[in-house]
Amino acid sequence: MRTAFAMPLAAAVLSSLVSAQTPPPVPAPAAATVAATAVAVIVKVPKPWYAPRALVVGKMRDTIPQYESLPGLNYKMYSFARADGHFGGLYLWKDRAAAEAWFNPAWFERVRRERGVEGQVRMFEAPVVLVNPGTNAGSGEGDALATLVTIPTPPGVTRERLVAEFRAALPVYEKIAGLKRKYFIITGDGRFGGIYQWESQAVADAWFNSGWHERVAKTYGTAAAIEWFDTPILAPSKLADNRIGNARP
C-alpha cells in the first residue's frame, strides 16, 4: 500500500537512485591504435513509485558537471522512457572502450546493491553521427525528446553496405527542421536504425507519420520498432578530446 510517509523518503533515497548511474570515477581508456567507431548507449533504471519526476530531474541536474567532463563521453540526454517511466540516459561515447570503462562491473553491482534490480544497458555501434547546427549550445532543459528506431537488417546486407547507405542519407536528415541529432546505429542482434533527438513532439510526429510507417513496411516487409523518451536535460561534453568529428565521424 502506498502511504503518505513514503514521500518524505524520496529526497533521501534519490541520491542513491541517481547514483546508480554514477559509479566512482574510472581512468580514461587507452588511446586506440586504429580509428574507433562511436557507440551509443541507452540506460534504463526503474524509478521508485514514491519519487516524483520533478525530484528525479533535480537530482539529474546535480550530476551535469560530472558528465560534462567525463572522458570519452560526447553527449548525454537524461531520459525517462515513456513505455515504463524508467529513468536513465541516452549517451554517445567516442568508442566502445570508453563506454565499457564507465559501465563496468562495479556500475552494475552498484545498481543491484542500491536499487535491488538490474540496470539495463544497451550498446549500439554508431558508425555515422549527425549533429545539426545549434545542438551543442551547452547544457540545458526544455521539451526535447528522443526516439530509438530499429528495423531488421535485410538478409545479405553487410555492415559496409549499411554504413554506405547511412552516409548517403545524411543530406536528407540535415534538412529536417527540428531534428537536432541522429545516430545511425547497428545493433548486435541483426537490426539497424537510429537514435533521433527532436526539439519537439510536433516535429517528431510530422516525421513518423503514416506515410513513413507505410514506406518502412513496404521496403522491409515489417514494421519498425520505435521507443520514445522524454529528455528533460541535455549535457554536451566540455572536453575537446570528446568531440566526434564534426557532423560526420
Task: Please summarize what this structure is.
It is built from eight helices and nine strands. With 249 residues, it is of the alpha+beta class. It is globular, with a radius of gyration of 18 Å.
Structure description:
- The protein has about 250 residues and is an alpha+beta fold.
- It has a single domain, classed as Alpha-Beta Plaits.
- Helix content is about 35%, strand content about 30%.
- The protein has eight helices and nine strands.
- The chain has helices at about 5-20, 55-60, 65-70, 95-100, 105-115, 160-175, 200-205, 210-220, and strands at about 40-45, 75-80, 85-95, 120-130, 140, 145-150, 180-185, 190-200, 225-235.
- The chain has an eight-stranded antiparallel β-barrel with strand order 1-3-2-9-6-8-7-4, surrounded by four helices.
- Helix 1 runs parallel beside helix 2 (about 55-60).
- Residues about 1-35 have low confidence and may be disordered.
Instruction: Determine the N-to-C terminus distance.
Output: 51 Å
Strand order across the largest sheet: 1-3-2-9-6-8-7-4
What amount of the residues lies in strands? Answer: 25-35%
Unreliable stretches: 1-35
* CATH structural class: Alpha Beta
Any idea of the CATH topology?
Answer: Alpha-Beta Plaits
> What is the overall silhouette?
globular
**Count the helices. How many?**
8
Report on the biggest sheet. Answer: 8 strands, antiparallel, barrel
Name its key features.
Alpha-Beta Plaits, eight-stranded antiparallel barrel, globular, 249 residues, 33% helix, 8 helices, alpha+beta, disordered N terminus
